[in-house]
Amino acid sequence: MKTDDLVSLLASDAGPVEPASFARATGLTALAGFAACAAAVLLTFGPRLDLAAALATPPVLAKFALGTSVAGLALLAFQRSLRPGRAAAGVLALVLLPVVTVVAWALAVLATQPMPAWPALVLGRSWSVCFVMVSLYALLPLAGLFVLARRGAPVRPRLTGLAAGVGAAGLATLAYALHCPEDAMPFLATWYPLAMAVAGGLGALTGPRLLRW
Amino acid sequence: MSLDDFEAVLHPAFMAGLEGDSAAYRRFLDLIGGRLRGFLRGHLARAGLAGAEEAEDVLQETLLALHLSRHTYDPAVPVSAWAHAIARYKLIDHLRRSGRHRGHLPIDDEALSLATPGSAASDAKLDVERALAALPERTRTLIDRVKLKGGSLAEAAQAAGMTETAAKVALHRGLKAMAKVLSRRGTRTS
Hints:
The structure holds two protein chains of two kinds. By secondary structure, chain A is mostly helical. Chain A has eleven helices and no strands. In chain B, helix 1 crosses helix 2 and helix 6 packs across helix 9 (164-184).
């Protein structure tokens, strides 16, 4: 086919297009992904027994803040990465800010404690559950984000996958915080960021293959 | 023409196209097509692949991708940067698929502005033709008719005995299916 013929063909399919509706889709997908995570947490573990009382305490608020800021920044980068020509890596790198903040906070806590108390503060009673489950819950929003990404134009699929994975883990963090009974800062600063790294790695690894277009 | 001057004519044509103005949209496709042809030829030549036919194949796949990705355009970036990023992706994908992508392609905005626009089209190597062949016959006939009628969907629909709405839907689906066939061609399952 001549390029000229192709051009007339494409021009004859020039119906109106509204880019703004695509921008809203990331928000809706994230909301649905969070709802799925929260439902899964409440069904498998139930909320922590003292949730009402703990809701306004610094450790729970810190988990919410960590989950919200990481999810917000990563999903912003994710959305930008679906729009060719838009830089996204810089926004994604900002995710390190909240992570570094909780790590610094955790180190400050450890500094006030005698060394023998450290393992208990870092490992808590449920480190493996937290780490494994947050990574697993993250798969729910991650699947939705990948479906959405296929409707976009990810010209850097590895970056899109990384941002989707980290963002999904941020949403999972927010949901798991409803259950997570651990209130030690060193615990929070270790296992949540590790789960985010795992989910982000998974996204980055599978993105180039699953998001080809 | 500098990149800024180019953007100054490209942007309004594209924006009018987004609102459904098909004459303006055609102008956009012609403008960006000429520009990207130079860009793709230049890069394929530098990769040691001088075939103008190959550049035309990648160009056609890129134009199809631009068309189907119009909703991903972000008003915060120049239209030429958006189109360029897609062309770059399709070029790398093309080279990788044929196993000739070595490392990173140093492609930046400068490459687009240095591209010599306006060189004449050459024949494509049949890739789009092959994608067309994978479509259901009814869609293929419709596409042939639109081509024959110089891009008039209304006349083509009439000739095919379809309503214009049905023809519109069939054409759009057909183009999507073609893009899918193109992006899967030569995929190695390693």
